[in-house]
Write the structure tokens for this entry.
Amino acid sequence: MPSWLPLPSSGKLGQSARWLAAQTVSFQNLIAGVMHVNGRDVISVNEFRTGFGNVLGLGGTAGTILNLTIASGVITVQTSYNHIDTEASAATDDLDTILTTDVAKRGDICIIRSVTSSRDITLTENGNIRMTSTYTSFTLDTSGDMAFLVFNSVNWNLMSTFGGTLAV
């Protein structure tokens, strides 16, 4: 728990504050992981803060969620939070490349999820998406699955996932 957060010793407020403090520590650990992947410096602390401070570094309006369709393995994002659909509503599709309408900067964030649980989206390393050295792809196989990516000037690095299936 952060020492700067005084917590009540009992009661609902104490439980809620402890939960919030645990989430804060988890988020701080996520940020630390974003900056270094497999011993490589992906982005600096200041670049991450700049990108994260303006989560919509890709443009768009806060709260905007776009539904995008893959075309030949590519999507073009306009905002940081995107729902993705397969090309021609196919049962499965690969997402190889993420393009942006604005010039993406180091530290920009992109969160993607599948439009529907009936169509699977697989993120691959065939374009500008990178996994850790352990994994080769990540499949969004329900509409609740999410991928959290950070741009490093060249590639979109998969930093965190929620649900889905990672393949070795």
User: Anything to note?
Assistant: The first helix runs from residue 11 to 35. The CA atoms of residues 55 and 109 lie 6 Å apart. The first strand starts at residue 36 and ends at 37.
